Every structure is written in structure tokens, then in C-alpha cells.
């Protein structure tokens, strides 16, 4: 069977001095460190047989995808299915002010972590990302495709592919900034999943999507 690999790449660190949950808000760009992270992943994939680079429409994903595509003489296309997960607390600081868990007004949003009740259902995220991944696999058949998107949709897609429960502890996600989660296919069938962190040397002091430091 034809072997095809689809790499799901998480974007780099974002410039977010206010430490808010930016979610799908427009205009959030990579930090200087994030730009270096993007270059690290581009160099990591430079020798691979990449024939397609696609990204979430959000700026941080587009910026991360740009050097990857440039290394292969490709353009970056967009896929709305790769967008960040929707979240009720978008635009707020998690754990502070209007978004704090201890505020009784917010309890309804935390009522069902299995869905989850605060945002886009986990299974809907898996469905749309899996569809985008298989579309890329078909288009890049026999080669490699790169999809640049966001932490939670990547992690949920991996959990689903490996037959693990979607409900999880966010602190245990194996999906660092500019990490590469690679889905290997034999024909249309998943043959395995690999994971690597090309920008790991830049993690010290970096800030993740919710404002928490990685190290």
C-alpha cells in the first residue's frame, strides 16, 4: 500500500502579554520566541517529502506554517476545520476576574467536563480535524502533508486515533509548542502515530495558550 504521513503541527508561542484565553480572537501573532520555534520546526521538516502545507485561518497558525511551506517551495492554504476550539471564556483570563472557577455564576459552564460544557464538544473537534487530515492524506498520497493548528484539537485527534478516552487532564497533554504529531497511513488506514518536539530547546520561559509557563 501507498504510505502517506500527515503531520499535525501546533503553532509557536503567541505574543500575549495580558495572558488571556485568546481562542479564536483575530490578530494574535507569534512572539519573537514563537517565530524562532516556527523556524525550528521548518528546519526539522526541511528534508521530508512534504507536498502540501495547510493551516488554521488564525494568524498564529499561518505564521507558523509560512517557513515550513517556504522550505519546500509551497504556498500555505487554509482549512476552516483546523481552527481553534470554541470556548465560552474566550477573551478572559482563566482563574481571574469574570472567568474564575470559584464564581457561582460560572458553575454552569463547568457542569459537564465530558462534553465539555464550556466550549465546543470534544467529538466535534475530532470529527472536523480528522476530516481535514484525511482530505490532506488523499491530496498528498504517497508523500507528506503538514497541517498547522492548535493544541486541543490535535490532542483530541490523537486520543481518538489511539482509542483513548477524550476526557483528560489538560496538564498531561503531550502537545508542546511547535510540536509535531505525525499520523502514518498505509493507504487510507492509520498505521501509527509519532511525536516529536523540534523547538524543545526554546521551551524554558515560554508561555502556553492559557498563560501558564511551560517550565
Automatic annotation (TrEMBL):
Organism superkingdom: Bacteria
Pfam families associated with the record: His_Phos_1
InterPro entries per the UniProt record, alphabetical: His_Pase_superF_clade-1, His_PPase_superfam, PGM_Phosphatase
Name of the molecule in the record: Histidine phosphatase family protein
Organism name: Brachybacterium rhamnosum
